[in-house]
Amino acid sequence: MGGWKLEVFKMALYMSFPVALFHWFNQPEYFEKWVVETKRELYPPENKEQKDMIDDCIRKVREKHDLQLAAALKEYEGK
């Protein structure tokens, strides 16, 4: 139908299209921008106040747990 010229054109298109897309979407500027934005979405910068509140809460829970363990140990030793 189209002959060898059409086949050469189709083959060139089939080979150059993925290469062109790879080149276009893997530019360092685009990739770096995307990575930085994704990192900031997944891991936002820490807030000092929130970190202190979380640490304080963890400390309180651990102290409460230690007191419960100490009470259980005293009860066990008393038997």
From TrEMBL:
GO terms for molecular function: unfolded protein binding. Its main location: membrane. The keyword Mitochondrion applies. InterPro entries: Pet100. GO terms for cellular component: mitochondrial inner membrane. It is a single-pass membrane protein. GO terms for biological process: mitochondrial respiratory chain complex IV assembly. Keywords: Membrane, Mitochondrion, Transit peptide, Transmembrane, Transmembrane helix. Transmembrane segments: none annotated. It is found in: Membrane; Mitochondrion membrane. The keyword Cell membrane does not apply. Belongs to the PET100 family. This is Protein PET100 homolog, mitochondrial. The lineage of its organism: Eukaryota, Metazoa, Ecdysozoa, Arthropoda, Hexapoda.
